[in-house]
Amino acid sequence: MTTSLNDRVLLITGASSGIGAAIARAAVDSGMRVVLGARRLDKLEALAAELGGNEHARAVQLDVTEWDSCQAFVAAGIEAFGSVDAFIANAGFGAPRGWLESTPEHWRDMVLTNVYGAAISIRAALPALLESKGDLLLTSSVAGRRNLPGSLYSATKFSVTAMAESIRMEVAEQGVRVTSIEPGMVDTAFFDNGTPDWVLKDEDIARAAIFAMSQPERATISTITVRPSAQVV
Predict the structure, then answer these.
(1) Any bridge partners for residue 138, and if so which?
(2) CATH number listed for the domain at residues 9-226
(3) Of these residues, 153, 157, 210, 221, which one is catalytic?
């Protein structure tokens, strides 16, 4: 028997578009209340309005690379809805493959967001999750399990995969469940040049997140890898 998500409070980083926004929609459809975090406040506010306004969703501007911003995001969630029952560290972006592609500045921002940002946003949320015995989810990638040629992005996602397991080992006996979600190719703005017809939709990843959070308390889905059926790697 699955666990009801009704009235549980979910905080999502990187919630303004793509997978984060899809998870928000699926969560509200499942009865959850959501706190949406990202840098683009206008998009967050539009999504919060779509999801039913303040009763169901709150928009909070968030920069995951800034500790004060991460703390304020969690505090806003608690102030709005009284608790943090689940947290999804989803913020991240990629870079062109090739060690002579992109720029060092882009690399720096990607590492700060994908690795440091995931770590400190989780750190900000963890005391509340320990209190609620909640769910922690991290958006990794198939690229965090299989190396991609010339990809520093892949290295950041290997770090997220390792982070999820390290945290799981630390908090398992304290009642917090940790799940690493590893999408394959998804049709989102992440891919600037478009995607093949056979790729996943962002709602496919959202269903995986809801599945993990809906498990009975005795069960943790530690890793979910969701590939398009036609993806070989």
Answers:
(1) 89, 180
(2) 3.40.50.720
(3) 153
